[in-house]
């Protein structure tokens, strides 16, 4: 069999054809990634307003979302779901603390604090982070279905000691941002890698558990150690399930062999589970 190419005939099994097609795919993937970065650099945050994404958005919801957006990388949909989650556990009197792992500048925890303060619920908050940027990833840690290289490449380029410039926010920055909310409840800042700090400092009971650690190791530690402490009716929010392969594998491995859980989609990356 021959394949006609521009008036010539080329044997279907000509050596090198497969390699050339693979190379073309690699070039295409690289160009698409570069285009995405260029567009993001020019336009910054999407111009779509939260009210266009969430028809039932209230004025109070929008005020909180707009207040915290400079301090978070999460979408309006995720922020809105978090606000509804803390209101839900408060209204249903579900016991336990609020816990977030991977806080960056504190925007999501700020949203939770503002929503809790608004309804007079001052439950304890736990904020786990290295406060030194992203910790070292593994080969499992890569963007889901993106064709992008493993996260290790970017981490090596941005490395500073055991941390990195990647999503780096110091504890002083986060503390100042949380203080600005005026939240009167206790806030505990736990510094270090989650897989290490969770071995020694954990809440007794949790009502809302938000995991935003991206990588496999800290996500696995959070699921293994904290999920059992989540109250029945409590909310688990997985920020990276659809975005980072390592995070998804850690969650899937945890639930494998257990009773099925209903997982709700928040946006491309985010998922929500109500514990039953």
Provide a descriptive summary of the structure in words.
This is Macrocin O-methyltransferase. This protein has 276 residues and is of the alpha/beta class. Helices cover 41% and strands 18% of the residues. It is built from ten helices and eleven strands. It has helices at residues 17-43, 50-53, 59-68, 76-91, 107-118, 151-158, 171-179, 194-197, 216-226, 245-255, and strands at residues 2-5, 8-11, 97-101, 125-129, 159-160, 163-164, 187-191, 206-211, 230-238, 263-265, 271-274. The strands form three sheets. Strands 7-4-3-8-9-11-10 form a seven-stranded mixed beta sheet, sandwiched between helices. The chain has a two-stranded antiparallel sheet with strand order 1-2. A two-stranded antiparallel sheet has the order 5-6. Strand 1 and strand 2 (8-11) form a beta hairpin.
In short:
The protein is an alpha/beta fold.
Percentage of β-strand residues:
15-25%
Kindly identify the CATH topology of the largest domain.
Answer: Rossmann fold
Strand neighbour order, sheet with most strands: 7-4-3-8-9-11-10
The helix content, as a percent range, equals: 40-55%
* Tally of DSSP β-strands: 11
Estimate the mean pLDDT confidence.
Answer: 84
The low-pLDDT segments are 1-12, 36-46
Whole-number total of structural domains: 2
- Provide a count of the helices: 10
The H/E string reads EEHHHHEHEHEEHEHEHEHEE
Q: For this structure, what is the CATH homologous superfamily of the largest domain?
A: Vaccinia Virus protein VP39
Task: Supply the helix-strand structural class.
Answer: alpha/beta
What is the rounded Rg? Answer: 22 Å
Q: What coarse outline follows from CA principal-axis ratios?
A: globular
Termini distance? Answer: 60 Å
Which CATH architecture of the largest domain? Answer: 3-Layer(aba) Sandwich
For the largest beta-sheet, the strand count, sense and barrel status come to: 7 strands, mixed
Query: At the first level of CATH, what is the class of the largest domain?
Result: Alpha Beta
């Amino acid at each position: 069999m021959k394949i006609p190419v521009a008036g010539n005939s080329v044997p279907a099994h000509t050596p090198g054809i497969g390699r050339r097609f693979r190379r073309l795919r690699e070039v295409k993937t690289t160009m698409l990634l570069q285009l995405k970065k260029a567009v993001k650099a020019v336009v910054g945050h999407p111009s779509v307003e939260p009210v266009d994404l969430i028809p039932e958005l209230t004025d109070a919801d929008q005020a909180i979302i707009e207040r915290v957006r400079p301090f978070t990388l999460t979408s309006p949909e995720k922020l809105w779901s978090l606000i509804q989650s803390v209101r839900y556990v408060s209204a249903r009197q579900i016991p336990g603390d609020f816990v977030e792992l991977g806080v960056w500048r504190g925007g999501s925890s700020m949203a939770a604090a503002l929503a809790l303060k608004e309804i007079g619920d001052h439950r304890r908050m736990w904020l786990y982070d290295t406060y030194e940027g992203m910790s070292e990833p593994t080969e499992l840690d890569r963007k889901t279905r993106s064709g992008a290289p493993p996260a290790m490449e970017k981490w090596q380029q941005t490395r500073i000691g055991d941390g990195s410039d990647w999503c780096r926010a110091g504890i002083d920055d986060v503390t100042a941002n949380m203080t600005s909310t005026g939240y009167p409840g206790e806030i505990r800042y736990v510094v270090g890698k989650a897989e290490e700090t969770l071995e020694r400092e954990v809440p007794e009971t949790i009502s809302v558990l938000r995991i935003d650690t991206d990588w496999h190791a800290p996500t696995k530690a959070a699921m293994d150690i904290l999920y059992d402490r989540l109250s029945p009716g409590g909310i688990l929010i997985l920020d990276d399930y659809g975005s980072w392969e390592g995070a998804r594998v850690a969650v899937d491995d945890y639930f494998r062999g257990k009773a099925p859980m209903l997982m709700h989609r928040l946006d491309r990356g985010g998922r929500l589970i109500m514990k039953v």
